[in-house]
């Protein structure tokens, strides 16, 4: 289990993606893939124009759009501890997260994203 945490943490740091509050962007990710608005909200849309999963985070609401099939949503803190787990339905759904402010790793099937709850 300790090896899993080390791999997870090293993955987070190896991609060179860090959150910068001054610029409201993620460093190391192309701007076309990550979009912000003025209300501390962001969404990730990797393949614009195709049917792809869209993840939106607005304060404590997580919105997942275009999920092709039912799957499991898992959220890990930066130490690699699973803090949230639930089955999610295909299509578009909204979930209320009651997690403390911080950085998390969101996993849906093979899709893995880093999120910041502020």
From TrEMBL:
Enumerate the UniProt keywords alphabetically: Signal
Q: Which residues form the signal peptide?
A: 1-20
Q: Which NCBIfam families match?
A: Por_Secre_tail
Q: What is this protein called?
A: Secretion system C-terminal sorting domain-containing protein
Origin organism is Fermentimonas caenicola
């Amino acid at each position: 289990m300790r090896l899993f945490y080390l791999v997870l943490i090293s993955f987070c740091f190896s991609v060179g993606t860090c959150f910068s509050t001054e610029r409201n962007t993620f460093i190391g990710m192309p701007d076309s893939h990550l979009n912000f608005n003025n209300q501390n909200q962001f969404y990730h849309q990797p393949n614009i124009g195709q049917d792809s999963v869209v993840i939106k985070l607005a304060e404590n609401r997580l919105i997942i759009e275009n999920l092709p099939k039912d799957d499991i949503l898992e959220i890990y803190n930066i130490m690699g501890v699973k803090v949230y787990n639930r089955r999610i339905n295909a299509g578009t759904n909204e979930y209320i997260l009651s997690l403390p402010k911080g950085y998390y790793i969101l996993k849906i099937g093979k899709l893995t994203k880093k999120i910041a709850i502020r």
